[in-house]
Amino acid sequence: IPHADLCFPGHPPPPSTPFPEEQMDSLLSIISSQRERFRARNQELEGENRMLQHTVHALQSELDNLRADNIKLYEKIKFLQSYPGRGGSRDDTEQRYSSQYEERLDPFSSFSRKERQRKYLSLSPWDKATLSM
């Protein structure tokens, strides 16, 4: 049996003639231009991603600064309300920042509360039911 006549089942026979040269050049130019388009689009998206990450970091920093400013303002409100003759009506804004202000003053109670919550969540449902009784 000659070697060229050997065929493995499930595999096509090897091509007897390669693609014509002009067809290879045409395919190569198509693939090259497609690769360049993808490369340009990738660079564009990476630049956009860097810009968006920078914007997110800037906004997060601004948010943290505003939160700190609000807590300081709440501290001033609390100080002014401590004077005699000043009634303290609390609105939603004060309620929102009062807990953050208190946590900032007493980190141990905050830690203790978080630890208790963590321990409670790690209990089995049976233990939780027993504890609630």
From TrEMBL:
| Cellular component GO terms, alphabetical | Golgi membrane; nucleus
**Alphabetical GO biological process terms:** intra-Golgi vesicle-mediated transport
The record's InterPro entries line, in alphabetical order, gives:
CASP_C
Q: Which residues form a coiled coil?
A: 28-76
- The answer to whether the entry has keyword Coiled coil is yes
Show the segment(s) annotated as Disordered: 1-22, 82-103
UniProt GO MF annotations: DNA-binding transcription factor activity, RNA polymerase II-specific; RNA polymerase II transcription regulatory region sequence-specific DNA binding
Ordered alphabetically, the record's keywords are: Coiled coil
Q: Does the keyword Coiled coil apply?
A: yes
Under the heading Pfam families, the entry gives: CASP_C
Q: Which residues form the CASP C-terminal domain?
A: 24-133
Q: Where is the composition biased (Basic and acidic residues)?
A: 88-103
Report the protein name in the record.
CASP protein
Its ancestry begins with: Eukaryota, Metazoa, Chordata, Craniata, Vertebrata
